[in-house]
Design a protein that fits this description.
This protein is α+β, with helices and mostly antiparallel strands. It contains 16 helices and 46 strands. Helices cover 16% and strands 46% of the residues. It has a 22-stranded antiparallel beta barrel. A five-stranded mixed sheet has the order 3-8-9-6-7. Strands 14-13-18 form a three-stranded mixed sheet, with no helix packed on it. A hairpin with a 3-residue loop joins strand 1 and strand 2 (102-107). The longest helix has 18 residues, at 622-639.
């Protein structure tokens, strides 16, 4: 019956049906307004293709109808006989060919038109639009969307901000506020999608709370990446790029039918390797901000009947090593605080001016440390990443209107970072220092049913189970110069006075390794529903509801795993951890409990013999004991607090998400909408210094009003919205006083600034509001223009426990800073991007060719890059431009382009503090050659 219905519709109104199907295809999976899953669309197109091929007479009618109905401007979509969205990567002039239809050349549908009826603020870009200027990584992709940006960080610590909030890494047990979707699978770990996006069909950014339609709920929005899927049409494409800094980029994809109308496949590989633009003077073979990426994906599409389809996908990011951590340049630390008080803090330049370092490496000076373009690190190591995963996407087509979908997915992730203190000295042992994530394991199972009830409502209901297990630890390894580096001025002066003291200072930390572990188990279960009610022909109402059950556990511990050369200098114990040393005061005098304990006395006597040649500790002079006391303080300060396994506070809750969004079609060219969206984000637990602290759940109440319009004879699509979002208990990285370490270090110098520890808490209130526009213009011959912009104001309405800016941390200054009313960091008020493309047909030696050119300019206004609101943290207004210029065959069989990124060499820092700068990579040019069947 279903087969006859489809055939009748095609025969009755072939032109209109073709366009309706193509329009439906544009709604890629992962979109808030999607009417059916992508695999459903894929199978539907397979069936349509079989129908078209069954009758030459019907094919001719379809061809005539398509040719007659197709306007010369970018007005209507076209149907590709393949199992993937129309939004898949296509050049503006796409050659569409089947055995029956022959060849039809049309202009591609502007992607923004697909959002014309959707009551949501969203931006869609295609893979072709992104790859033409080599925008593969998250940072470059998001610059081409709207009001969304990637926060600086490696693959583990990067965050994504939207409308000025959410762009910060918290810790492993918390979900990001801006979620990522990869091929229909919702993730709660941004690291999974932090690698290059290749063979991409579309990327869609949905702004505002989401999650009643499919996948996971996110409090601020989501970013959906959809790769190209297998088709039964033979496909092959490849490209090679060579450019500055030994850049090699290679992409290849191939696919087609394995068994006609039964089994199809697609394979893709992406290689992106380049030297970094900043060298390591200590080891010139190491360059910072290099690329070392090899990724691949293989997919199978199985269609045994018109009522069932299955797609299996597996992809891998091979082990890579990229130099990113410690990649900041230094500038002299201000000598005074904001009130004029002298800055007596232990700055890097004060440490490097000590005799130990001046005489230890005469080839390295302070001028080298303050180099604006070269690093100098003896133990620099690259950040290592790898990931792999797969999915099984099953679809049963129960009738013309009902589809049952099941998506099963598994993914893992490995990460290891090594941190150097950014000098050529042996201070931090980078081989045993930094963050290490041996495993992140993500398992999810989603089932959803899509259907409709007559003409009244289109609805979707579903359930999701998601489990994420994380094994993560950080360790701090110290080298032979660490004692001289971490000593206070008083401790250094005392120990550097003679050889005995210098040996004590060296051994105090040499070989010491401390490790802190986190074990995270997160379980989420969800029921969700989403419905679009057709109240009248012009009035629609979208309603959605979701209920989550969240169960989250984070266990921690911190232990000393290597004593190094200074084991004898340990205290007897720290908390419940025995260290086997002896207790003494700051002057090195044994404590009463040590004098009464023969074991502690024996260890102290061993110290006397090893460092001073004395038989007993009691025989040492007061100055010698004071040297021992100074060495013990240095060691104690780096060991810090230790604790056995801390179970943390279990977070368990039921949390709702709601969406209500009416839209009204004023006329064929104008649709207006309003929406209310509510979301609760799960809280969690952390254990700084072994004490469990609860992080409260975050609540988002978002309101939006907007319109979608087509103007000037459908040559300009303009979408705009005004948004207002109140966030309660915003999960915010904060600094709180570390009493344990502060008290230890102040025993030597009471004037030392307090030591803070980085934990996550809650800012009571955040408000974001602003205006966004998205547009597409095609009124100029041979030219298309994408543009987007936003005015955004994100600020704290209640945040009284913010850390104090560094220039205000003078003696006697308050510990906490009231940031109420402050604009959030990394939230520029104004952003704008524009991406024109021109494709002009020419004839070259009798071959149809085209000259093409494009550029993307991204503008952002001044913003604060320091989370403590230092006046030294401002990044100025800046603009970055990328471009592509080339010539190729109109059929896509050959193309050559010159590509440039940051062509005007924008050198505004990405981030800065009062004495560091994170540099922006500079101008780059390359040549790309590509071809396809």
């Amino acid at each position: 019956m279903r087969k006859k219905t489809v055939k009748y519709q095609i025969a009755a109104r072939p032109g209109r049906t073709l366009m309706l199907v193509a329009g439906a295809l544009a709604l890629a999976p992962g979109q808030a307004y999607a009417q059916q899953p992508d695999a459903d669309l894929a199978a539907e197109i397979i069936r349509l293709r079989q129908q078209l091929e069954a009758s030459r007479q019907e094919n001719e009618l379809l061809k005539d109808a398509l040719t007659a109905d197709q306007p010369s401007t970018l007005d209507e979509p076209t149907l590709e006989p393949q199992a993937e969205p129309v939004l898949a990567e296509q050049p503006p002039a796409e050659r569409i060919e089947t055995d029956a239809l022959g060849e039809v050349v049309v202009r591609a549908q502007p992607r923004i038109k697909k959002l014309k009826e959707a009551p949501v603020s969203a931006t869609v870009r295609t893979g072709q639009e992104l790859s033409r200027e080599l925008a593969f990584d998250m940072d470059q992709i998001l610059k081409r969307t709207n009001n969304t940006k990637r926060d600086i960080g490696n693959s583990r610590t990067n965050g994504i901000g939207m409308r000025g909030v959410g762009g910060q890494f918290l810790f492993e047990s918390l979900d990001p506020s801006v979620g990522t979707i990869q091929d229909g699978v919702a993730f709660t770990y941004t690291g999974f999608t932090s690698f290059d996006q290749y063979d991409l069909a579309t990327v869609e950014v949905d702004r505002g709370p989401t999650g009643t339609d499919f996948g996971k709920n996110y409090g601020l929005g989501r970013i959906s990446f959809t790769p190209r899927h297998p088709t039964f049409t033979p496909e092959a494409s490849s490209s090679l790029t060579y450019g500055d800094f030994n850049t090699y980029i290679a992409d290849a994809a191939v696919g087609g039918a394995v068994i006609d109308n039964l089994l199809a496949w697609r394979g893709a590989i992406h290689v992106n390797k380049a030297d970094g633009q900043f060298k390591n003077a200590f080891n010139p073979d190491q360059t910072f901000f290099n690329r070392d990426r090899v990724q691949g994906r293989v997919q199978l599409l199985f269609t045994p009947s018109e009522d069932f389809s299955a797609r299996v996908s597996f992809d891998m990011v091979t082990p890579q090593e990229e130099f990113f951590n410690s990649g900041v340049f230094h500038k002299p630390t201000p000598t005074t605080f904001a009130n004029g008080a002298t800055n007596n803090s232990l700055t890097p330049e004060r440490r490097l001016s000590r005799r130990w370092f001046v005489e230890g490496n005469r080839d390295f000076t302070l001028n080298d440390f303050f180099s604006p373009d070269t690093f100098n690190m003896n133990l620099a190591q690259g950040v290592k990443n790898e990931s792999k995963g797969g999915l099984i996407d099953l679809n049963w087509y129960l009738d013309d209107d009902t589809t049952l979908t099941s998506i099963t997915a598994v993914r893992d992730y490995f990460f290891r970072a090594s941190n150097d203190e950014q000098t050529p000295f042996d201070v931090n042992n980078s081989f045993l220092s930094g963050g290490h994530t041996p495993e992140v394991l993500h398992i999810s199972q989603e089932v959803r049913l899509k259907s409709k009830f007559e003409d009244l409502v289109d609805y979707q209901v579903g359930a999701l189970y998601l489990k994420r297990y994380t094994d993560q630890y950080t360790w701090g390894g110290r080298g032979s110069d660490a004692g001289a580096w971490y000593a206070t001025d008083a401790e250094f002066a005392r120990l550097d006075a003679d050889n005995n003291g210098r040996q004590l200072m060296k051994d105090s930390l040499d070989g010491l390794v401390r490790r802190e572990d986190w074990l995270v188990n997160n379980d989420s279960g969800s029921l969700f529903s989403n419905a679009e009610w057709h109240v009248t022909d012009d009035l629609n109402l979208v309603t959605g509801a979701r209920i989550n059950y969240e169960h989250r556990v984070q266990k921690t511990q911190r232990q000393l795993i290597r004593n190094g050369f200074g084991e004898l200098l340990n205290d007897k114990s720290v908390n419940d951890t025995e260290l086997g040393g002896f207790n003494a005061n700051n002057a090195g005098e044994l404590s009463e409990d040590a004098l009464a304990d023969p074991t502690q006395v024996a260890v102290a006597d061993a110290v006397a013999r090893q460092y001073f040649g004395a038989d007993q500790y009691a025989d040492l002079s007061a100055e010698q004991k004071a040297q021992v006391g100074a060495a013990k303080r240095i060691r104690r300060g780096q060991i810090g607090n230790l604790w056995q396994r801390e179970p943390g506070n279990v977070f368990e809750a039921f949390q709702p998400t709601f969406i209500v969004s009416p839209s009204y079609k004023i006329n064929e060219n104008l649709t207006s909408y309003v929406s209310w969206r509510y979301n609760q984000k799960a809280g969690g637990s952390q254990s700084p210094n072994g004490v469990a602290i609860r992080v409260k759940p975050e609540t988002s109440n978002a309101f939006e009003i907007g319109f979608k319009s087509s103007l000037f004879n459908n040559t300009l699509d303009l979408h705009a919205d005004y948004f207002w979002n109140e966030i309660t208990n915003y999960q915010q990285r904060t600094l709180v006083l570390d009493e344990f370490t502060t008290n230890i270090r102040r025993q030597a110098d009471p004037n030392l600034l307090p030591t803070f520890i980085d934990i996550v808490g809650n800012a009571k209130g955040v408000r974001i509001m602003g205006v966004e526009i998205d547009g597409f213009y095609s009124g100029i011959p041979y030219t298309t223009i994408n543009f987007a912009g936003a005015w955004n104001h994100a600020y704290y309405t209640d945040f009284k426990n913010s850390p104090t800016p560094v220039e205000l941390q003078f003696p006697g200054a308050p510990t906490l800073f009231d940031a109420t009313g402050k604009t959030l960091p990394f939230a520029p008020k104004f952003t704008f991007n524009i991406s024109p493309e021109v494709r002009y047909p020419v004839n070259v030696l009798g071959i149809g060719a085209e000259v093409h050119g494009s550029f993307t300019t991204v503008f952002e206004s001044r913003f604060q890059s320091d989370r403590a609101f230092s006046e030294f943290g401002w990044v100025g207004t800046n603009t970055t431009t990328d471009f592509s210029l080339g010539i190729g065959r109109q059929d896509g069989k050959f193309d050559v382009s010159v590509i440039g990124t940051n062509v005007f060499d924008n050198d505004e820092p990405i981030e800065q503090t009062w004495n560091t700068i994170t540099p922006r990579t500079g101008r780059w040019f390359g040549v790309r050659v590509s071809s396809s069947l």
